[in-house]
Amino acid sequence: MTLSPPVLGPRMPGRYYGRHRRSHSVSIARMIRSATPADVPAIARLIRGLAEYEKLSHEVVLREEDLRQHLFGDKPYAEVVLAEDGGQVVGFALFFHNYSTFLARPGIYLEDLFVFPEYRGKGHGKKLLSHLAKLAVERGCGRFEWSVLDWNAPAIEFYKSFGAVPMNEWTVFRVTGDALERLARAT
User: Fold this and answer.
1) What is residue 24's predicted lDDT score, i.e. its pLDDT?
2) CA–CA dist 162, 85 (Å, integer)
3) What integer pLDDT is reported at residue 23 of this predicted model?
4) Which helix (H) or strand (E) is 24 found in, with range?
5) Is 82 within 8 Å of 33 (Cβ atoms)?
6) Is 46 helix (H, G, I), strand (E, B) or coil?
7) Of 96, 152, 93, 97, which Cα lies nearest the Cα of 124?
8) Is 159 labeled as catalytic in the residue annotation?
9) Residue 7 to residue 10: CA distance in whole angstroms
10) CA dihedral in degrees (173, 66, 90, 52; nearest 10)?
11) What's the pLDDT at 17?
């Protein structure tokens, strides 16, 4: 015999809605883990999912062997934590350390945060961010920062809900491709 849950109407944040809340909290705590080399195909799928969401699929040229080397080789350039739901990888955060000369302390820069759309609203993104904030505190970092596309209003509101502040006075610059090659040759 299967019992259907009662229909409760809209749920309010912070309210208790039944006996499963505690077990749900525990399962969320267990769903974040550091990536391993075996996770590279899943990380690549997440990166492609992020690119599709950001309408930038045409820019993705990643090769899994490069990702494996850069994340798990002799000199890792970045780290990845994964969100799992029912044993399936459903989200990730790719990050690396930067440094604040004004603070004279390291920081964490979040390059990418992505949860597959069908798994959003379940706490995965919040738990990924919370995990990285905890790492920043444990590692003595003075900052935890990232960029977000101007049009991504849901992400902007999500980040603001945790106390993140937009750095509107800053403009991101990038040099890539031929411009990077020319700059490297400049004297």
Assistant:
1) 44
2) 23
3) 41
4) helix 21-30
5) yes
6) helix
7) 93
8) yes
9) 9
10) 50
11) 33
Query: Which helix or strand (DSSP H or E) is residue 133 part of?
Result: helix 124-138
Candidate list 53, 99, 109, 159, residue with the active-site label:
159
Stretch (H or E) spanning 127: helix 124-138
Please count the CA atoms within 13 angstroms of the CA of 39 that sit on its side-chain side. Answer: 23
Which pLDDT score is estimated for 31?
87
The angle that helices 64-72 and 40-53 make with each other, rounded to 10 degrees, is 110
Q: For residue 181, give both structure tokens.
A: 């090659």
End-to-end CA distance of the chain: 77
Query: Average pLDDT per run of 10 along the chain, which is 187 residues long?
Result: 38 35 43 96 98 95 98 98 96 98 98 96 95 98 96 93 94 94 94
The candidate with the shortest Cα–Cα distance to 87, out of 25, 37, 19, 33, is 33
Phi, psi of 20 (to 5 degrees): -90, -5
Walk across the sheet containing 105-115 and list its strands.
32-34, 79-85, 88-100, 105-115, 143-146
Q: What pLDDT sits at residue 28?
A: 45
Query: How many residues make up the chain in this entry?
Result: 187
Side-chain half-sphere of 49: how many Cα atoms within 13 Å?
19
What is the structure's pLDDT at 175? 96
Question: What's the rounded Cα separation, in Å, for the pair 43 and 21?
Answer: 29
